[in-house]
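Comment thread on ticket #2218

A.B. wrote:
> Attaching the input chain for the structure job we discussed in standup.
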Amino acid sequence: MRISEQVLEDFGGYLAGEEKSGATVEKYVREARRFMGWLAGREAGGETAGLYKEELLRERTAAGVNGAVAALNGLFGFLGMPECRLKAVRVQRKIFRDEARELTEKEYRRLLMAAKGRKNERLLLVMEAICATGIRVSELRSFTVEAVREGKAEVVNKGKCRVVFLPGRLRKELLRYAKERGIGSGPVFVTRGGRALDRSNIWSDMKALCREAGVEESKVFPHNLRHLFARTFYGLEKDIVRLADILGHSSIDTTRIYTMETGEAHRRQLERMRLMI
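C.D. wrote:
> Ran it. Output below, let me know if you need it in another format.
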C-alpha cells in the first residue's frame, strides 16, 4: 500500500477516536510522515518497514527507534497490515534518573518566584496546580470553577476516570483568581480569547522563565512538574500503588520511572551502608 497525506489524516482521526492524547496523535502522525518521506513513493510493506528500521538503528538511540516503531505499528494496525508490525528494540530498564533533566524543588520554587516577579499570575498558578496535584497538563481543563469550589475534579483520560483532589490553599487561590477575572464557570485557566490553555501555551511561558530563574531549559517543561509531585509524594508515603492511582497510571512500571532516584543518591546510600572495614 502507498501512504498518502489522506492516509495520514485518516490515521490521525483514528488515533483521536481511540482516545490517544493530542501529543501521541501528533507524534505518531509525524513518525508516519517521516516513513512516507523515506519511502519516496514506494509501497509500504514488511520488507520496506524492516529496511527503514535498520536505518533508524543507525541514526537514533534505542528509545528513539522504539518510539518510531510504536507509531508505525499503530499505522500498520490502522491499515489492516498486522504482518508488517515491527519488533521493538530490547532495552535494559533504566534504574537511575537523568540528573540533567531532573527539576529539583529549589529550582521549581525559583521558577515560581520568576513568574511572580513578572506578574504572570496565571502561569504561577498553573505550575502550582500541576505540582500540587500531579495532574497532567492536558488535564488542566478539568479544573473548572465548579470543581475548584467542590475541592475535587473528575478527570477523564484515555478512557479512564479518576478523582483529583485540590489542596485547600490551591482552592483558595484559584477561586480568588477566577473571581478577579470574571470567570464564573468552566475552566479556570483560559486564554484571552476564552479557550482552555493548551500544552504549547504553558510550555513557551515556562521556557521564558529559565534565564531569570537560573534553571537549565532542559529541565523546564510542564510534565517535569508532575514528576516532582510524584517524587515528593513517594518520599513521604513510600506507597507506589497509591501513587499510581493518583497519577492515573495503568501500570506500576510507569510509576517506577517517576520515582527513580539519581545515581548520586544511590552512591550516597552505598556510603551510608559502611560495609567496608
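A.B. wrote:
> Thanks. Noting for the ticket: The beta strands are 152-157, 160-165.
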